[in-house]
């Protein structure tokens, strides 16, 4: 059973991961299915080193898992619930005040 502390930990891990645009792009790519660093780098127009660093971060947060396949490593989202939750999150409508940027030092809720 998830406690409030463990739920908060999950939310914080997701928030940190999705706060970075590149990690968000990697997660979006993995929503379509498993990926390999070289292919993700090509598809996202990033360097392989950059993608590998972000994959390591996402893996460290527990959001993705790695499976060695011979000389390659396949990455995928760690849990189907996470995939489902992100898909639902992408369908959400966010009420945004036009002209109000969402950055830490500009958001009233974060100040």
Automatic annotation (TrEMBL):
It comes from the Bacteria. CDD domains: HTH_ARSR (cd00090). InterPro entries: ArsR-like_HTH, HTH_ArsR_DNA-bd_dom, HTH_Metal-responsive_Reg, WH-like_DNA-bd_sf, WH_DNA-bd_sf. Residues 4-97 form the HTH arsR-type domain. It holds the Pfam family HTH_5. Gene3D superfamilies: Winged helix-like DNA-binding domain superfamily/Winged helix DNA-binding domain. NCBIfam families: HTH_metalloreg (NF033788). PANTHER family: HTH-TYPE TRANSCRIPTIONAL REGULATOR CMTR (PTHR39168:SF2), TRANSCRIPTIONAL REGULATOR-RELATED (PTHR39168). This is Metalloregulator ArsR/SmtB family transcription factor. It comes from Microbacterium aoyamense.
């Amino acid at each position: 059973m998830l406690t409030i502390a463990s739920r908060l930990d999950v939310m914080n891990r997701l928030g940190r991961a999705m706060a970075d645009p590149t990690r968000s792009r990697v997660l979006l790519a993995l929503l379509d299915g498993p990926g390999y660093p070289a292919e993700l780098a090509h598809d996202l127009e990033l360097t392989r080193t950059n993608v590998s660093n972000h994959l390591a971060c996402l893996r460290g947060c527990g959001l993705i898992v790695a499976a060695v396949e011979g000389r390659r490593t396949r990455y995928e989202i760690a849990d189907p619930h996470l995939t489902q939750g992100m898909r639902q999150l992408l369908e959400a409508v966010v009420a945004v005040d036009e002209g109000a940027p969402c950055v830490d030092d500009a958001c009233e809720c974060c100040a």
